[in-house]
Amino acid sequence: MISTHNLRFGLSLLASASLAPFAQAYAEAAPAAATQGVELEAVVVTAQRRSENLQQVPVAITSVSGKALEASNFQAVTDLQYVVPGVQFDPTNGAAFQIRGVGSTSFDFSNEKSVSLVVDDVVMDGQRDNGMTGLSDIQQVDVLMGPQGTLFGKNATSGVISIATAKPVLSQWAVKASASYGEREDRNANLIVNAPLGDKFALRVAAFTQGQEGHGRYTTLNQNLNTFKEHGYRAKLLFKPFEGLEAIYTHDDEYHWDNSIRTAVAVASPAVNALQIANGVTQGPENGDDADSSMGMIRTKTQGDSLRVQYQVGRDTLTSITAYRKTTYDNDTPADLVPATQFAYIPYNSGRLNTSKVSQELRWASPTGGFVEYLAGLFYNRLLAEQTQLQWATLGAPIVSPTGVRLTNFYALTGAIGAAGNASLFKAQNTTGAVFGQLKFNLTPKASLAISGRYTSDHNGQSLNYVWIDPRPITGVNATFTATSAQPYQNRGRVKDHNFSYRIAGQYQLSDHAMAYATYSTGYKPGGVAFVGNKYAPFADETVKSLEAGVKSELFDRRVRLNVDVFNSEFTDFQATILTNIPGNVLQQLVIGNAGGLKSSGAEANVAWRVNEALSLTGAVTYADAHFTDYVYNATTNYTGTRLTNAPRLSAHLGAEYERTVGTMRVRANLDYAYRSKSWTVVGQPAYSEVPAYGLANGRISLSPENSQIEFGLYGRNLFNKYYSTGYQQYGALGLLHYTARDAYRTVGVFAKYAY
């Protein structure tokens, strides 16, 4: 373990060593001679499904290189929210991304994601699947703001996060290895190998393992709480038999485990609070401890295979992406707060989810530069999900009586009826088919107009059955069950939708290094099947109309890149999720339904400045006001005018990178700061769910001997030890509970890298 003294010393060294070079570099930046020939590197993106310079694409895009992600010290794709302003991730209620404050999270399996996560051209749409566990061997991440449903699959009404991993390289051996270790056993190890297999094949394998012990404690189990561990690999085989044909087969396999769980903020029962104190837990807004006698945990296994073939047909390009993915998601989340032998509420709460998907995309694209540029494509996606869910509760009675007799009767909160079943079985099938295309007219050397559209057909179906799960292996007794409400034995439903979405984008080259653009876009998400209190309750499709205008520019001999935009998106029948009291249920349920209207408007700015050969600065800010314009939930509840959940008005990111040779050593240093204003985690902005504004500072400094492939140094996340929560929830008779993010505590450590 790293001692407290060494950690403090390392933190001081990291902060002073990181800041000193920046101050010196600013002083050196004034002479013009020092900056001659220094310019920013061009950024290539595929926002319009072909490789183009970022500055020539009429879309608001934040692009983050793999190198910048590595320097940020973050470890998961969900950490992009701390690198890209305007992006949020809600780890609760089904887990999903939001962009510009807009996104919907739901436990309903037929609900589509508002933000489409695309990895190497494959849509990651599996429920409870973030598509990528570790950020290993990343080439680039592009975040496309606003509706992108015309050229990207799966109805991206809020935006797209497009991740590109590194490709194999022909005729080149390469090895990269890195490892880090820090506080609370924070650990990360990566190995990347690029191997040529003859002159037409190349294999690239990236493997990783990472984890951290949690800051909180399971006091009665003597275990850390909020611990996680992950490992996985990705193998990519490149086949290039001749110029004009390229095929890449990819297989990936990842595993994730954590024991994160809700902890008490304000327990409703004084008796339960007294039991918590007796078991070493003090409730409060920063409490990360729990005295439950059973550990909550989440296990996720994901696997995927894809084949990407690109073929030159004359001057045009034909691209095919075929993919198959499967995910297993297991969660055990008991909710007792204290040992179940003293007091129990829901001692047995488990779900087992299996998903699988197949997808096929075909694209035909012309070269760029002609009077007319065209792109056409077909898309098909079929996602299957099956989950069993059991919630066996005592609602206050301990599972062992004072005389040592085990409880044998439980309440089945899933609505199961006696012999018909004690658990729920959900099966869902979401099928999408689409045809899409774009025509771009280069009207003059400076002006162009692009028109794109997509016709989509969706078929979403879901069924609910009650099944019997043998209670003895779980409870230790041959238990009987009492239903909390009487519901029909079987429910099923299907929703069919179709839509035509389009986008019109005009752009004008103001000068050689400045372009102005304006776009009008529409978007859509299909309706779905919901079971509210185990009763069929379908919700309608969601549509959006969005207007955006911006300027992209490069100034001062391409040493400064400044991109700004303003936007206004108006949603109709927005698919919102709220906590609702269901008759016969002791817990509020998360129910998805349609809000009449939602509006997100604001502005964004991105700046990059190459100060000199040693120093580069970056900054980005998003102001997004996302609020309901029409949401009358019932006769007594009106959410109109309230903000969407997890939607800060202001988010920003500042970064600095410094690199120079001092004597015989190469010094590299990075600092970045991510800020977000206050937000709420429950619809209606109740005071108990407010997350105050906070900022996270991260740093990294390293040394590398001259002419050496070895690099070693110090890193730190959340340097100022700023605490924050990620979600609050009123959990029945237990009271107010919350989740704590792993990065809500400072982490300092050491790292080393080797490249050949």
Please state the overall shape, judged from the principal axes of the Cα atoms.
globular
Residue windows where pLDDT falls under 50 for at least 5 positions = 1-36
The portion of residues forming beta strands comes to: over 45%
The gyration radius over C-alpha positions equals: 27 Å
Task: Give the integer mean of the pLDDT values.
Answer: 89
- What fraction, in percent, of the residue positions are helical? under 10%
> Structural class, from secondary structure content?
mainly beta
The profile of the biggest β sheet is: 22 strands, antiparallel, barrel
Q: Kindly, what is the distance between the CA atoms of the first and last residues, rounded to a whole number of angstroms?
A: 31 Å
Number of helices: 4
Number of strands: 44
Could you explain how this protein is built, in words?
The longest helix has 25 residues, at about 5-30. The chain has about 750 residues and is mainly beta. Mean pLDDT is about 90; it is low at about 1-35. It has four helices and 44 strands. The radius of gyration is 27 Å and the shape is globular. The strands form nine sheets. It has a 22-stranded antiparallel β-barrel.
